[in-house]
Specification:
Blueprint lengths: L1 E4 L3 H14 L2 E4 L1 E4 L5 E4 L8 E5 L6 H17 L4 E6 L18 H12 L3 E5 L13 E5 L2 H8 L6 E4 L5 H11 L2 E4 L2 E3 L6 E3 L10 E9 L3 H12 L4 E9 L5 H7 L2 E7 L10 E4 L2 H9 L1
Parallel strand pairs: 1-2, 1-5, 5-6, 6-7, 7-8, 9-10, 9-13, 13-14, 14-15, 15-16
Antiparallel strand pairs: 3-4, 11-12
Helix pairs in contact: 1-8, 2-3, 4-5, 6-7
This protein binds ribose-5-phosphate.
Amino acid sequence: MIIVAGPSRASRGFAESLAGSLGARLVEAQHKVFPDGERYVRLDESLEGERVVVVQTLSPPQDSSLVEAMLLADAALGAGASSVELVAPYLAYARQDRRFLPGEPVSVSVVLKALAAAGYSRLYTVEVHKQESLRAFPGEAASLSPYEYMASKIGLSGDVLVLAPDIGALDRARRLAGAIGADYDYLVKRRDRVTGEIVVEPKEIPAKGRDVVIVDDIISTGGTVAKAASMLLEQGARSIRVMVAHALMVGGAVEKLRKAGVERVYAANTLPPVGDPMVEYVDVAPVVAEAVGG
Ligand code: R5P
């Protein structure tokens, strides 16, 4: 098996760790951007008869990352690979998983079909927004849960309250709470599909005097977690920490969370680090290695 590291820093770091866990050879893709913005990749060695696993996270700029992932599949097959699989630690476009408004695309299906059309026969990702979305991928696809492993790495124990900031994250909270033997609860959030505005329904949470860990798949603008954190602190929570798979952290998210009273964010290393001490990263490549190697 050969692990090919895609161009971005986050992809390279993840690929190195994955190759280390699997004891596999690592090949770094050469890459450049043409003056007009088009992407170029090259695999400068024969991959004759090899099972090739490309690591390319679909981090911002998502469209370029996606194109590079597709180009890498074709490059690997052209260099003789017997099969090519993709590890995309962050699967972009996963949240547009249905037609919320008439006339919208199911973006995640389009992305998955495009990756298969480029040549990928298997796909591994970390905590996809909705598991069912992966059915659109014509080959085998797996979404790997990072929370249990992250909890063991940071030494999280059961004397916390695990909270899902919306019903979509309830299964995530249940998994994390189950792994550490903690209580869990959830909030109900509604998002305006046109303006993006978030409303969290008022709810009594048994948070008084407790350390709370909010668990979600993604922090993007930080709005969801900030609203949940403020509500919990108003209800007497002692401290708020957050565990997420994907810390996109756009539009001043770190500051928003700090202002809302969040002490720390634990994030998997699926995206480039934000470079703020508030966000602590856990390398989850060993979780993916188990699936790739097994
Ligand atoms: C939505 O359902 C997701 O699970 C996340 O809660 C959401 O994408 C987070 O976005 P933001 O940080 O912008 O509120």
